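Posting this for the archive.
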Amino acid sequence: MNATPFFRSPASLRAPRRERGAVLIMTLILLVVATLIALSAQRNTALEERMAGNLLDRNLSFQAAEAALRGGESALANAVAAGSVPVLCSADAGNCAAGWYTAASGAQTPVWKRVGWGDGNSVPIAVAPPSGSTSPLAANPRYIIEQLDASTSTWRVTARATGGSGAGVVVLQSIYITE
């Protein structure tokens, strides 16, 4: 039988070295760096979520404004074809429930900038949210119609809509010339 002698080598008899903690310090530094990277990634994710939400809100309001613009153009085409254009309110009218206006004179602010879009000065259009969207619109889109030039029958249809949050507002216009 081989027996190992019971003695220690001179290397093992030396006094133990004193720990200096370099590994602990490096680990703490790496932990702080990893935490900063995680916080930055979380902040970027939150920002991207807000951006995506704002884009959705803007797209909803744009689609609703397009629907209102088509509704206004259709109302104008039907009225002109029937020869029964409603009575036009002056650009200074305080309340024009029909939403049909004469154009503002040259130096005045255009009607679409002055009209109160939330009250009875414009025509609301009921629209359903676009397919695939679960968020309803904050308010129904609205339109107004202005006769720009009576001699050439030039009209401006202006539509305004808000998205689901009410913060994203889109205003669209078209010029409509009748013969």
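The mean pLDDT is 82. The longest strand covers residues 154-162.
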